[in-house]
Amino acid sequence: QVQLVESGGGLVQPGGSLRLSCAASGIIFSTYSMGWYRQAPGKQRELVARITSGRSTNYADSVKGRFTISRDNDKSTVYLQMNSLKVEDTAVYYCKAGSSANYWGQGTQVTVYS
Predict the structure, then answer these.
(1) What gap in Å lies between CA 57 and CA 43, rounded to an integer?
(2) DSSP code at position 99
(3) 22-42, pLDDT tens digit by residue?
């Protein structure tokens, strides 16, 4: 079965950093584009960052320059390094794997507070 398991969320003060991880199983990881999405209360889910199987990346304008997505195909894991966190980054962050099919993780909570 396909599983995407996020970890690394938590509580952090503005200006702080977190590193999210998403470990995948049940897919040929290296062939999938991987993405991080987030959903804040009362808002639609939005794309935060994406990395293709060829390691091309793209980011939402709101996080560009602060967040970095990367992948380790040997570990079937995608990461999201989040620096200079802002209160408005507070959301549940979801991992997505996409190719011929799409798969989603259960999400991990990131809370930025002052």
Answers:
(1) 24
(2) S
(3) 999 999 999 999 999 999 999
**In angstroms, what is the C-alpha Rg of the chain?**
13
Tens of pLDDT, residue by residue over 8-20, are 999 999 999 999 9
CA-to-CA dists, residue 51 to 10, 13, 14, 57, 76, angstroms: 23, 27, 26, 4, 13
From CA 42, how far away is CA 65, in angstroms rounded?
A: 26
**Pairing between β-strand 91-98 and β-strand 102-104 as defined by DSSP bridges:** antiparallel
Tokens 């799409």 belong to residue: 102
* Measured CA angle at 27 (ends 21, 32), to 5 deg: 70
Element (H, E) at 51: strand 46-51
Torsion of CA 62, 70, 40, 43, to 10 degrees: 60
